[in-house]
Design goal:
Elements: H1 2-9, H2 13-26, H3 34-46, H4 50-63, H5 71-77, H6 79-90, H7 95-99, H8 107-123, H9 129-146, H10 152-166, H11 171-186, H12 190-202, H13 212-229, H14 232-248, H15 253-268, H16 276-290, H17 302-305, H18 312-329, H19 332-344, H20 353-370, H21 373-390, H22 394-410, H23 417-433, H24 437-453, H25 457-474, H26 477-494
Length: about 500
């Protein structure tokens, strides 16, 4: 067992697999080899044999008395009804009541909860998210019926994510997610559960309530706990989402570049490179924004253009990053393409708030060229979404509401310059308050363009110079160069 664990932690997967398989074959009683089965499943997943890992989870659960139906049967059961039923089992409890639930000491119950956890983790590479929600709900139902235990934090964190996705957003999902975090302390399982719980809560439900920067800090803690356990997969997942939140929060691009380059170097040394494509997308985005390369690399999309099979998570991440990058580069038709691609894939859901924001901004740019009402409607939809999430997190979203409203006012047929300027200034101050230096720069840039359109060259130059300062602090030489060119053009027309 020690050999297989050491080999797994070092990434020597073949040795880890052979050692764990030998132990499983030698021990007869299922109860005596539950720990090694847990490791065996992790190894299978790391070897990209997620189907075998998934089926092994179901087999162990069945041997323990919990019959989990296969995916093809689940489709006939009805996922929506299962989610609603599970939701009703938790909705009536307050936070203190959930935290006060009696702890189960039954070893079989605890083992079943553990293998449900493994089932959920490996299922992301095997089945659709809709089916995953079913298995998460089965896990949460089992937890509610048989009592809380040390695996309950991971269960509730997963259930909170399912609620968040299924019902767009619910305060209940955040409440359940925070209960999961607090239960780790109650059961003294922070070191064991934190990697999974922090990943689930702070990459999903908490983003609509807590500042991006705070969520990034918690994902950093999830990464550190994962590394201390030798769980490389969870460590990598926590880290990639931590960097994404830092990016959302306006962290200096040079800091992101250093982290990303380090991770790519480490990932290429490992036999298990499931997250390498995500890091490469990040690298392409950050290097382009910094100005280290002039355009986004077409090679990043080779898998898609050549008909390769990619996960929905990868496609979502790719389209989201490309959409933002294309907007920053001024390639608005490309930004539109990626936004619409997300919609066709069913990926532009409520949780993809940042994508919604950039789609609204992109629609304004396209309207300025084509003047079709459909693009105004698109921006109005984005504003409605931003207003809804700003109710729970002014820090993350209020500046985006103001900026979209300012842009909409700027292209109105009956433009009110004072109203538009007021909204631009609110967007600038709100972004500054939230420490989103990149979005402060963007608000200044768009305010400058507005002033230039209405003939106010003085304010246009003032706003653009302020935008330049923000982009310089962010570390985007590409945007600084762009603003310099815009300032030069205004000066040339004024002279």
């Amino acid at each position: 067992s020690l050999l297989s664990r050491a080999a797994y932690a070092l990434g020597i997967l073949d040795d880890a697999f052979q050692a764990s398989k030998m132990i499983i074959e030698k021990i007869k009683m299922i109860e005596d080899k539950l720990d090694i089965y847990t490791l065996y499943i992790k190894i299978l997943f790391a070897q990209d044999d997620a189907v075998k890992a998934f089926n092994t989870c179901r087999w162990v659960l069945r041997r323990l008395g919990e019959n989990v139906p296969p995916p093809e049967v689940v489709e006939d059961i009805g996922v929506h009804a299962t989610v609603k039923t599970t939701y009703s089992m938790y909705i009536g409890f307050s936070t203190p009541e959930l935290l006060g639930m009696e702890e189960s000491k039954n070893p079989i119950h605890i083992a079943i909860m553990n293998f449900y956890r493994e089932l959920i983790f490996v299922s992301f590479k095997v089945i659709t998210k809709q089916l995953i929600y079913y298995y998460i709900c089965r896990w949460a139902q089992y937890n509610s019926t048989n009592g809380f235990c040390r695996h309950t934090p991971e269960c509730l964190a997963s259930f909170a994510c399912a609620l968040n996705d299924w019902f767009d957003f619910s305060r209940e999902s955040y409440k359940i997610g925070k209960v999961a975090v607090d239960l780790m302390k109650k059961y003294d399982v922070v070191s064991d559960c934190a990697p999974f719980v922090y990943l689930a809560v702070y990459s999903s439900v908490a983003l609509l309530v807590e500042p991006y920067q705070s969520c990034a800090d918690m994902l950093q803690r999830g990464y550190e706990f994962s590394m201390s356990k030798g769980d490389i997969d969870l460590a990598s997942r926590n880290l990639v989402l931590m960097v994404q939140n830092l990016y959302f929060g306006g962290t200096k691009l040079s800091v992101l570049k250093k982290t990303i380059s380090s991770r790519i170097h480490l990932e290429t040394q490992r036999s298990h490179q499931i997250l390498l494509p995500f890091w490469l997308i990040f690298e392409d985005t950050v290097f382009t924004l910094i100005g280290d390369q002039e355009m986004l690399s077409p090679n990043i999309e080779a898998d898609l253009t050549e008909g390769g099979t990619v996960s929905s998570d990868y496609l979502d991440f790719l389209c989201h990053q490309r959409m933002q990058s294309s907007y920053w580069l001024g390639h608005y038709d490309r930004a539109k393409y990626y936004a619409e691609r997300k919609i066709r894939q069913g990926l532009l859901k409520f949780k993809s708030i940042v994508s919604e924001f950039y789609f609204g901004l992109t629609a304004i740019k396209i309207f300025q060229r084509k003047e079709k009402k459909v693009w105004i409607n698109r921006t109005e939809k984005s504003i409605a979404t931003m207003k809804k999430v700003a109710e729970t997190s002014e820090w993350n979203f209020q500046n985006k509401v103001y900026l979209l409203e300012a842009e909409l006012s700027s292209v109105s047929k009956h433009i009110d310059n004072d109203e538009a300027l007021e909204k631009y200034n609110k967007a600038i101050e709100a972004a500054k308050w939230s420490k989103f230096i990149h979005e402060e720069g963007l608000a200044c840039e768009l305010a400058g363009f507005h002033c230039n359109r209405v003939g106010d060259k003085t304010n246009a130059l003032n706003f653009l110079n302020r935008a330049k300062e923000c982009y310089n602090e962010w570390g985007s030489r590409m945007k600084v160069k762009f603003i310099d060119n815009e300032i030069q053009q205004i000066n040339n027309t004024a002279s």
